[in-house]
Each structure stands twice: as C-alpha cells, then as structure tokens.
Amino acid sequence: MKLGIIGTGKIVEEALPVLKANGYIQLAGICAVNNKDKATLLARKYNINKVYVDYDAMVASDDINFVYVAVVNSAHYEYARKALAGNKNVILEKPFTTNLRDAESLIDMAIRRKLYLFDATTLYHTPTFKFMQKALSRIGKPCLAHANYSQRSSRYDRYLRGDVAPAFSTELEGGSLLDINIYNISLVVGLFGMPTSTKYFARRGYNGIDTSGVAVLNYPSLVASCIGAKDSDSPSYAYIQGDAGRIEVEGRPSELRKVRVITADGAEEMELDNRHRMSYEFDEMVIIYSGVHYDEMRNLLITTKNVIQTLDMLREE
C-alpha cells in the first residue's frame, strides 16, 4: 500500500508512528490542508516521501494508490469522493460521513470502480470485537446494553472561552455524538445491527453543539444506552446483558482492550497486547487488500452504512 495522507491534525499525529511501524505500508505523501509547515515537520520526522500543498496533485500521483482521509468531519465526503474519482483506494477516518446519503454515494462509487474503501473505526478490527461477536450466543437472549465513553476534551476550556475548535463546531459537524459517542453506537450496531427506533438526549453548549449526550437504541428484545461526553470525565466501559450471562468491556469502547464473558459455566477473558489500538485496523486493511478479499470489505461497509443511518436517526432528534 502506497499511502498518501490528507490532514495534519491530532489523529494523523497518532496514526503516523503506527503506519511507520507497519512493514507493508509505504508513506508516499502527505498533503497539508492549511498548514504546510506542520506537514513538512511530519514528513521529516516519519520519512514521508513528498509534501503536497495541492490535493488534486497528490490524488493524480502514480506514486500513491491509497489515500488516508483525516480532516474535519464536514470535509470527509468531498476528499474521499475526489480520491475515488482519481481511482485511489481510500481509508476514511470516523465518522465515515456525516449523513447516510454521502455514505451511500461513496460506497456505490467505490464498488462501481472496484476500489477499496475502508472505515477507520478501530474497534471492528480488534480480536476482542470478534470474540464478543462469537460470545453473544453464550449469554442467552440479549436484554440490555450500556456503553460509556466520556473524556473531557483538551479543547473544552478553549470552547468555554469562546474559541470554538472544529470538535465543537456546528458548521464543521463536530460534537459528542459524531466524535466520541460514535464508538459506543458502532459497538452496539456492529453487534446487533440496525435499531428499530432511537432517541437522543443531548446536553447543548452555547452554540448548540452537543457537548455530551445519551443515545438510546431500541431493538425488538434489547434496549441500549450509549453515553458520550466531551465536557466531563468518568470511567469508560461497556456491558451487554443477556438472560444467561453478560459481556463486560473494561475501558474505552474505542479500544476494547479487555473483554470478559461471564455465564453460569464460568468466566472467559480476552485482552489485547500492548500494541497501539490503530495497529489492528491497519494490519487488517493490509490483509484484506493484499489478499484481494473484496467481499470482506463490502461486508464491513454494510455495518458502516448501518451506523451512519443510526446516526442520522439520532441527529433528527
């Protein structure tokens, strides 16, 4: 995979050492949205082949066959669309898009062109998520699910002073639901599919953005509550309760670092190794792409589409 990166923000800084350590991904280019100096510094630090200031030029380059889109939420669709139009495969940071129409458009475009399109929602690629999927049949009929990912944003004090970063901007599609609670919702939808109905109870800031909130997802036999906060802290966790046992997630739902299954027969636990949470997704993307497992990618996109549709339902609230 010869990777070009669009964006220089916090998520790119987190991803770069992981990408650098992956022996099958070549860092072929980085494009600055509005910060060439930052892109140049990152290129030097991680031996990225070329710095671009023109995204169209990067997309047109024969030295790149994948584009990692890691810009503000509101720009995900347009940058991904341009890459696919240039016959580049795409890794798209979460949220995949900010509405179902755009998600369907990108997925249809990728499939028509036989390109790879990956949703960079980390939890789906972990061994612990697959462990949870298999464990569902052991806990009986699911009754309740609840997940909490609360982390006071490093940008929240700025926001309180009136300095609105993209994470708290309504125009740039920020907010708790699309930024932090999406992991809880992705976990529930990934395990149980589309809910039959939803409700969102949001705590709104002075500009109308949801700084925290509780999303309720209803299923025929299950009710799930998803708590996400960017304005306050608490321990993060997830529980899936069935009438014959339960599944416990210790820590952030975005990582699924430790998962425990408890039934009348006893307890079984799986814990990830010490690798960075992003390493699992990039490793799996390489395997899918290099092994030409196109149907596996398409199946992952079905879940992505369900998540975005659920978010649409919640945002209507």
Q: Would you write up a description of this structure?
A:
By secondary structure, the protein is α/β, with parallel strands linked by helices. The protein contains 11 helices and 14 strands. The protein has helices at 10-21, 36-46, 55-60, 76-85, 100-113, 127-135, 156-160, 176-179, 181-192, 277-290, 294-315, and strands at residues 2-6, 26-31, 51-52, 66-69, 89-93, 117-120, 142-150, 197-204, 210-218, 223-229, 237-242, 245-250, 258-263, 266-271. Helix 4 (76-85) runs parallel beside helix 5 (100-113), helix 5 runs antiparallel to helix 11 (294-315) and helix 9 (181-192) packs across helix 11 (294-315). The mean pLDDT is 96.
List the helices and strands and how they pair.
Blueprint: E1 2-6, H1 10-21, E2 26-31, H2 36-46, E3 51-52, H3 55-60, E4 66-69, H4 76-85, E5 89-93, H5 100-113, E6 117-120, H6 127-135, E7 142-150, H7 156-160, H8 176-179, H9 181-192, E8 197-204, E9 210-218, E10 223-229, E11 237-242, E12 245-250, E13 258-263, E14 266-271, H10 277-290, H11 294-315
Parallel strand pairs: 1-2, 1-4, 2-3, 4-5, 5-6, 7-10
Antiparallel strand pairs: 7-11, 8-9, 9-10, 11-12, 12-13, 13-14
Helix pairs in contact: 4-5, 5-11, 9-11
